[in-house]
Structures are given as C-alpha cells and as structure tokens.
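JOB MANIFEST
job_type = single_chain_structure
chain_count = 1
residues = 242
[input]
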Amino acid sequence: MLLFAVAACLVRGQEFEAVSVKPNKSGSGGSHSRGDRGLFTAENLTLRSLIVSAYGIKDYQLEAPDWLRSERYDLAARLPHDLPEDRKQYRAAFGAMMQKMLSDRFKLAIHRSQKSMPVYGLVVGKKGLKGEELTCNCCNSNSNNTHYQSTCTTMDGFAEFLSGRMDAPVLDMTGLSASYKITLDWVAEPRQSTDGKAGADAPPGPTLTEALQDQLGLKLEPRKAPIEIIVVDHAEKVPTEN
C-alpha cells in the first residue's frame, strides 16, 4: 500500500492523456488486454476486473454488487510519457491513473476494511521445493481444470492461481521470493452423491492437494487470517461519455 501512496504522489495532477470507455455487448465470455508504454487497450473486461487491476488486489479482496461480474467494457487509454521507468513504480502509477479513471467515468466510490477469513497457507513441505528456480523478466502460463504450467512464476502468483481452484483464498507463506518453472497435473475431485459418497467413476490420479505435495513439494495448510478488503459503495453501469 505504501507503493501506491508513493505512486499517487508521483502522478498527482497526472492522468491518462485520453480515455475511451464503452460498454461491450458482444455476449462473448472471452476477454483480453494489452499495453506498452504508450497505449493500453482492453476488450470485454468486467468492471470488477478493472477495479481489481486498478487497486492491485486479488478478486477475493473485493466486495461489490453482483452486476460488476456481468457488465463488460472496452477500454483504450493513452498513457503520458513521463511515467516512472522502474517496473514496480510504473505499475503503481498506472494503477493510480486507473483509479482516477474509474472514479471519473464510473463514479466509483470505495472504502477499505479488514475481514478475518478462512485461508490456505501455501508452505514448503519437509523435503523442500521441487520447482526449478529461474531468473526471468516475463511469465508465460497456461492452465485448465487439471493442468498448470508456467515458464516463470513467483510463489505469490502461483498462490493466486490456486485461489481460483480452492474453496478459500491461498496465501503465499513459503518465504520464497524467486521465480520458478512449474508444471502440475492432477485429476478433478469427484462430485459427491446425495448420500455423501464419492462417485464411482472418479478418474485415477492425485487430487490437486496431493499433486502439490508429490510433484512440487508444497502443502496447503488451513489457516485464518485478517485480509484487507475493498468495498464498493457506489458504481454506475453506464460510464460517462468519452
């Protein structure tokens, strides 16, 4: 949060040189974004995802009306030329400008709070991590319901991926700051029948938690932790005109 405070000072009085925000009515479920040091574009993103990106938080840290998950928008923003060169400061400055855009165009109003939540702590098992440590500046990853592969990811980034597969947020508690090459394969856990018994057609193979331990030497431990959250007090579905 200190980084975002510094960024706010760096870009005080500064904002996107030009911004176009339009509702996307394509009905498509796919979305993508791209950017360089001059232009950022995003297509078919939910307002929820824009807020999560702007404030640098995880999805589970946002409490907001349900419609923020369904209403989608296209965004094109031209960036000023005097943004910080440092990567972290650049991202923080970009986030500060995104916050201003959301406030101006969607009349977004939020407040911060804390909430004690059940979480999983991602920790290293007794035999140590089995991932390959790398030095890199980019990360390419792909995943589906039973597979994850990344050429270069941090444990924090990996924990974020796992959060989308578990019934509670996953927090990186490994103490590892390097990036790693990771491949993980598991089987989907069978659905239970009405009598509470697992289905007989369950495919053979390790569950996600078992695969984590066997293939990567990582464990998920149930914990409870105070989590900072952002609560949306107000947002408008239709952005102000470009």
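[summary]
Residues 116-189+204-227 form one domain.
The first strand starts at residue 18 and ends at 23.
exit_status = 0
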